[in-house]
Design brief:
Distance between the termini: 76 Å
Strand content: over 45%
Length: 481
């Protein structure tokens, strides 16, 4: 018995997928459903555009910074848990991922002025978590049209299918996120109206790993091998095929957000923001490796030989630009000494998103990428996300709750109902004149059905039904000075 490492030549469908051309769906997933910034804001369901009364106004509505009468140092960390349950065929697979990271750190300072208010703020905010995990495994009785080149010691070679009646599995993990380094300023233009501007530099990284496997547990893929005289000389059996893809990605961009806040009375105010279009640059460093195992039984020698094919399937660096369209937000808040009620809506037209190529690149190298731009117009839609929240103050304590509805950018008639729902709660405690401790907890639930790339031929039949449960705990403090 022996092991023979030789070159693995991939079949056509697999090699096409290894180009790592992004799809319209991947760009949308990267940017939709930002989790928001700040403990108070997230515990109130992200309904903060019309309230924006602490440092995190730098993210929600920079005009709200003008409300600050004291300097503020604001920081928080978060723990995120993501639980998935996947059904593939008749088999259910569950996975859970947990991690703790810095959420934000920054400060705001109100300058002394003769009248009105002038406030500046600087800081760091994590705006989008990319950490997630999905795993499924099950038996697929249908063909997936995969084939591989095989050979033996006698020099026989040829392409033989490895496609039918397989135990298949796939695990996809992603770690990382997108963050902002921001600077903002706000000023009172009248006793009732404040205006503000935030300039943000985007940065971030992610590590994507996809492990695919298919196993011939019932020997459905076995073949007889004949010599030139059509004499049966060997039996051939597939065992398994494994594939690992890795993508290390960097993100960078620049964003401008302008906001206004109008105080109608001492108890009621409303705000609005415009987030201007952004060009988010994405640079991917990818690699892929495959491993194929099969056995050959020789009738002449009455012996079984094991063959293992390993290959580095390639790698490289690929960069491109995502052009992100305008985002408009409006909100209102009713405030008394005891009770605060707030609500907001966010609008974005995802059909206006598109891919672009960096300067000094050849458009011919980006044909596949740019071909997905038509899908933004045909498969996606405008969204209107809705946020509501409330706060009750009792002495030095504040208790908060909120609800958030995130409308999916995907058209329902194509992708089904992928809308998300979040509920949240939290509290703040002023432990001294200058120190406030805060915490919040939110949970989101949604379901989706996916077709994954490595089962293209039978994906319309063998889909993966997923249930997602994401929870987040935020803990932090504010220092007032």
């Amino acid at each position: 018995m022996k092991i023979k490492p030789i070159l693995l030549i991939m079949f056509t469908i697999m090699s096409v997928n290894l180009c790592f051309t992004q799809t319209a769906e991947e760009a949308i997933n990267l940017l939709e459903d930002e989790q928001g910034v700040g403990i108070k804001a997230t515990s109130m369901g992200n309904a903060f555009t019309g309230l924006a009364d602490d440092y995190t106004a730098i993210y929600w509505n920079p005009a709200g910074l003008a409300q600050l009468k004291k300097g503020e140092l604001n920081t928080a960390i978060f723990n995120q848990k993501h639980h998935t349950e996947s059904l593939y065929g008749e088999q259910t697979t569950t996975e859970q991922q947990s991690y703790t990271k810095l959420h934000n750190i920054g400060f705001a300072y109100p300058f002394p002025v003769i009248q009105g208010s002038f406030v500046v703020a600087f800081g760091y905010q994590k705006t989008k978590d990319l950490d997630n995990i999905i795993s499924f495994r099950g038996f697929n009785p249908y063909s997936n049209s995969k084939e591989f080149e095989i050979e033996n010691d006698r020099g026989y070679y040829g392409f033989l299918p490895f496609d039918l009646g397989l135990q298949q599995g796939q695990t996809i993990t992603n770690e990382g996120g997108i963050s902002q380094w921001s600077a903002a300023a706000a000023v009172d233009l009248s006793p009732e109206f404040s205006a503000g501007l935030t300039l943000s530099f985007y940065g971030g990284t992610s590590i994507y790993n996809m492990a695919y496997s298919q196993d011939d547990i019932y020997e459905n893929n076995s073949y007889n091998i004949y010599n030139e005289d059509e004499e049966l000389i060997e039996y051939f059996y597939y065992n398994y095929y494994d594939l690992l893809q890795t993508i290390n990605t960097e993100y960078s961009g620049f964003e401008i957000k302008a906001g206004g806040l109008y105080r109608f009375t001492d108890f009621f105010q409303a705000g609005a923001t415009i987030t201007f279009p952004m060009r988010l640059k994405v640079t991917e460093d990818w690699s892929a490796n495959g491993e194929l195992s099969y056995d050959i039984y020789s009738l002449q020698e009455d012996a079984i030989y094991e063959y293992l094919k390993k290959d580095n399937l390639g790698g490289g660096i690929f960069d491109y630009i995502i052009e992100v369209p305008y985002k408009f937000s409006i909100g209102a808040a009713y405030k008394t000494q005891l009770l605060t009620l707030s609500g907001s809506v966010d609008y974005r037209d995802w059909t206006q998103m598109k891919y672009a190529i960096p300067d000094d690149r050849y458009e011919s190298d980006y044909t596949d990428l740019l071909s997905h731009n038509k899908l933004f117009r045909t498969d996606f839609r405008e969204t209107l996300n809705m946020n509501t929240g409330a706060e009750i103050k009792l002495g030095n304590s504040s208790f908060r709750a909120g609800f958030r509805y995130v409308q999916s950018p995907y058209k329902k008639e194509i992708y089904g109902d992928l809308d998300k729902y979040y509920i949240s709660a939290g509290a703040g405690f002023q432990v001294s004149e200058n120190v406030v401790l805060e915490g919040s907890y939110s949970i989101g639930l949604w379901e989706k059905t996916n077709n994954y790339n490595y089962d293209w031929q039978s994906s319309d039949i063998m889909k993966v039904d997923e249930k997602h449960n994401s929870s987040r705990l935020l803990i932090g403090a504010k220092l007032l000075f």
